[in-house]
Amino acid sequence: MKVHDALNEQIKNEFYASYLYLAMVAYFDEKHLDGFAHWMRMQNAEEVAHAMKLFDHLTDIGGRVVLQAIDQPPSTFKSPLEVMRLALAHEQHVTEKIHELYGVAVEERDYATQVLLQWFVTEQVEEEKSVGDIVGRLELAGDSPEALLLIDQELASRIPE
Predict the structure, then answer these.
(1) What whole-number distance in Å separates Cα of residue 42 and Cα of residue 158?
(2) Is the pLDDT of residue 161 over 80?
(3) Cα distance from N-terminal residue to C-terminal residue, the chain
(4) Cα dihedral across residues 39, 158, 144, 81: positive or negative
(5) Of 53, 96, 98, 128, which has the fewest Cβ atoms less than 10 A away?
(6) How far is 74 from 151, CA to CA, in rounded Å?
């Protein structure tokens, strides 16, 4: 079924997001920005949970999970701002993919998948806002190491949802 193939593709996309955020954790760890690293570790865990939500749904509706190869994420970054801009662009890409998947579910009249995907649509609004807010703060901070450390401290306080 077309929707099953699209769900498998999105499972891959969610695992790639997890992998991308792990690459960002490594960068922030190298830079001793523990708050940013903590925030990205939580993003990684969320992406794995998203993939598993789709995985479980696909099996629940009688589909077959077919795990696909995950591309290697970038491993070098120029700055925390570049990392967060990349994270925002990635979340925007994920939003597009969720919308495309929703369209397939509508086309296939798969109402159960549409209901599940409504949660993802809402989640993506939240994801884009949270990353966009960090990008905005980093842009305001400019080249101030003091401001960067304040943002790092703030991100360290993130708690799981």
Answers:
(1) 8
(2) no
(3) 33
(4) positive
(5) 96
(6) 23
